[in-house]
Amino acid sequence: MGDFEHEETELEWINLFYSSITGYPTFKKNSSCFREFGYRAFIFPKFKIPYLENNNNQKEIEITPDFLLWKEKKESVLVVEVKGGNSIEENDIKQINNYKQISNEQIEIYINNATDQKNVKIRFAITCIVYKNKTIEKCLNSTSCKKRLDILSKNNVVLMQNHNEWLKLFNSYGLDFDKNLTDALIEGFKLPLNPKTEFYMTDKPCIKGIIWGISNYIFDNFFEGEQINEISVSPSTFRNKIFDYSMAKLNDFKIALEFLLKYNFCKRGSNYQFIFDQTFLKKYNQLREIIISYDCSYKIDPQESLSEYFKKK
Fold first, then answer.
1. CATH number, domain 207-312
2. Is the distance from CB of 195 to CB of 15 less than 8 angstroms?
3. For each of the chain's 313 residues, which pLDDT tens digit applies?
4. 82 - beta bridge partners?
5. For residues 312 and 263, is the Cβ–Cβ distance under 8 A?
6. Domain-by-domain residue ranges, the chain?
7. In this structure, what DSSP letter does residue 196 have?
8. Hey, which end of the chain has fewer CB within 10 Å, N or C?
9. What distance in Å separates the CA atoms of residue 154 and residue 152, rounded to the nearest whole number?
């Protein structure tokens, strides 16, 4: 249950931060956003760094920042981690220090592969961590938390954000290579109250997170553009196209869709398709309660109805 709630919180603040990349409410010539200053975003980029085990055997671990913001003209990147929690933890310092182990060469190779652009050069790779305004304010009133914040501030860019307010600099460490960006972030990038949902799941979602991500994506798409009566999707479409930024496996999407099928949120179509119609919208409000109550280790009988399921809980 905790993983699901954590994913929901992280996604809320990741989507808010993403609005500072594209602009508020949409990109305009005079809007303040990272794109205005020539930065291109990559979501959940994956890198490998060396890891030393207790027995001194060196291995590699995969790490995934939330964003990589690349400015070609400055030969620079911002490696960004967005936090949605209410405190600053020791693990935040450890996580951001891991990002510092990503070499410029690794970043060059990643951007080369992601853009098919050759000869990418990186001179500056600056780690950034983003917190809620209230998290920073609360931390400043705690001696132990403030020590952690001071450590982060000395070696990384620290940003603050809040809905219907601003993305602003808490400090300006390492941004001297781009004075225009520094000045703009001191003033702040305007953020929306309700940012558009661009990301429906994290990079490593639990099954509950995948079910909820699929459901929210389907819900939103019933209200995108022209009126539609049904939406047909497959596990491979979700894995390879819609949620290709996530590390969720194809089988995870199969499990999530089968779950929705068992509780009559969709119907089975041909060729591994799952069909959602307008009745999904009427049942949507019931879904979150089922997900929260559902024990991932518990195998639900496919013949159970929703009412029988709720009685068991």
1. 1.10.10
2. yes
3. 457 888 999 999 999 999 999 986 554 555 689 999 999 999 999 999 988 766 677 789 999 999 999 999 999 999 999 999 999 999 999 999 999 999 999 999 999 999 988 899 999 999 999 999 999 999 999 999 999 999 999 999 999 999 999 999 999 899 999 999 999 999 999 999 999 999 999 999 999 999 999 999 999 999 886 788 999 999 999 999 999 999 999 999 999 999 999 999 999 998 899 999 999 999 999 998 898 887 766 544 443 444 444 344 4
4. 130
5. no
6. 2-190, 207-312
7. -
8. C
9. 6
pTM to 2 decimals? 0.89
* Residues comprising the chain, all counted: 313
Provide the terminal-to-terminal Cα distance of the chain, rounded to the nearest Å. 15
Range 295-301 contact pairs with CB under 8 angstroms and sequence separation of 24 or more: 296/206, 296/207, 296/208, 300/259, 300/262
Strands (E) in 170-309, as ranges, are 189-190, 230-233, 267-268, 274-277
What is the residue type of 37? F
